[in-house]
Fold this sequence. Notes:
The chain is an alpha+beta fold. 31% of the residues lie in helices and 33% in strands.
Amino acid sequence: MRYAQFEIELLVKIKTPLVNKFYDLNRVKGRANKQDDVWVVRNHSEIIAACRVQTIASHLFLSTLFVLPQMRNEGVARDLLLYLIEYYRNKSLLPIFTFAYSTLDSFYNSLGFNACQNLPIELKCMFESYQLQGRKIIPMYT
Length: 142
């Protein structure tokens, strides 16, 4: 699907290794697996951004959003997130949770994400583990 000036695609499961290669080349923590919904943004067939939507105990969880540094501030992440929010709203009524870095909370707010005070227990355990690692993150949902 072409959205704005970029092509946004939900990868078929067999192409998951492409995203892991993209993450590895850019030293991104986190690996996609075949249970994840893996989204990519392409510019002239080159992957310029990617993210994963995991199902964790029947909750949708957005993670590992990465945009190439030279493509930042071009609307790539915004287009990708708006597209996948619409996709999941049409598919189910489940909220999408994420752990946003505190420096990006206004960006996520602008897309309709809100701070989440009561995380599902499975996500709360993940959140607490990440906080213990020193990550400055905020639990959010839309």
